[in-house]
Design goal:
Elements: H1 12-22, H2 25-29, H3 39-57, H4 60-67, E1 70-72, E2 75-77, H5 80-87, H6 90-97
Antiparallel strand pairs: 1-2
Length: 98
């Protein structure tokens, strides 16, 4: 099977504008729970999340559109590439490192 081109794109400048200029980011990170966070950490997470969506999740869109999800024996079955994509997510890597 040939891989379809990934057409997922987002404007990171726009996302950063919303996060830092429109959303009360400074108020959020002033809470004790988030004091270790700042703009640099938020930008790093945003950049890595965008990379993951563009390079890993995006290419699964075409397969998902072609095959779709199916209900089998009362369970939802997604196309095969979905499981691999989500198991390689930064969140999965973080969980494994704990």
């Amino acid at each position: 099977m040939t891989s379809s081109p990934n057409r997922y794109k987002a404007d990171l400048r726009e996302l950063q504008f919303v996060l830092f200029e429109q959303f009360p980011f400074a108020d959020l990170v002033s809470a004790e729970r988030y004091r270790a966070w700042g703009a640099d950490e938020a930008r790093a997470v945003l950049n890595e999340t965008y990379r993951f969506c563009r390079e890993v999740l995006g290419p699964t869109n075409a397969v998902g559109d072609r095959e779709g999800a199916k209900l089998v024996d009362g369970k939802v079955k997604t196309p095969a590439p979905f499981k691999d994509a989500w198991s390689s997510s930064p969140r999965a890597a973080f969980r494994a490192s704990r």
